[in-house]
Amino acid sequence: MKRKAILLAGKTFVVSLPNKWAKTWGVKKGEELEVAENGPNLTISTQKSKYNKKITLDLSKNSERVVRWVLSSLDKKGYDEIELENITPQQVEIIKELTKDLFVGFTIIQHHQKSLVLGKIAKDEKENYEQVLRRVFLITLNSINVYSQSFTVYVILN
Predict the structure, then answer these.
(1) Which residues on neighbouring strands pair with residue 57, listed in sequence order?
(2) Is 94 within 8 Å of 68 (Cβ atoms)?
(3) Could you report the per-residue pLDDT of 97-125, keeping only the tens digit for each?
(4) What's this model's pTM, rounded to 2 decimal places?
């Protein structure tokens, strides 16, 4: 990509950063960036090795519509991890439906009685491997339990 050099105060050259790159890496106004010279090339980098956007929300007293709207907004804003506190069983079902049908790339990473953590797993990062593997293991265990209970009920009825 090409950028034009701007002369500032008669002696300093300025080049703008691509907005998408700055947002991805969380670059803020006034933040220092590393600039390395290599002959005719310049390399600009941030100190952040990984920008992981997280948020924690209290969902107590929120309707189904509000839960859907909030989660949709957070997905569009680019959050990688969403921790939800004070959730009801009805809200858990809504969240399961949304992650299955609408939020491709998100899954429930942790689920406790009154809290739940959604994580974006559709990223090309090795750090997520253990989380995804754990989630697959938990889903498998849950499926075994459901099938086992169903089989037990079937045997009792027949």
Answers:
(1) 84
(2) yes
(3) 888 777 777 888 888 888 999 988 765 55
(4) 0.49
Domain boundaries, the chain: 6-45, 54-157
The structure tokens listed for 56 are 């924690």
User: Tokens 């953590």 sit at which residue?
Assistant: 117
Strand 106-111 versus strand 54-58 pairing type: unpaired
Query: Helices 64-77 and 89-101: crossing angle, nearest 10°?
Result: 40
What's the pLDDT tens digit per position in 79-92? 888 999 999 988 98
Could you say which architecture CATH assigns to the domain 54-157? 2-Layer Sandwich (3.30)
Question: What's the one-letter identity of residue 87?
Answer: I
The C-alpha atoms of residue 82 and residue 101 are separated, in whole angstroms, by 17
Q: Answer whether 33's CB lies under 8 Å from 27's CB.
A: yes
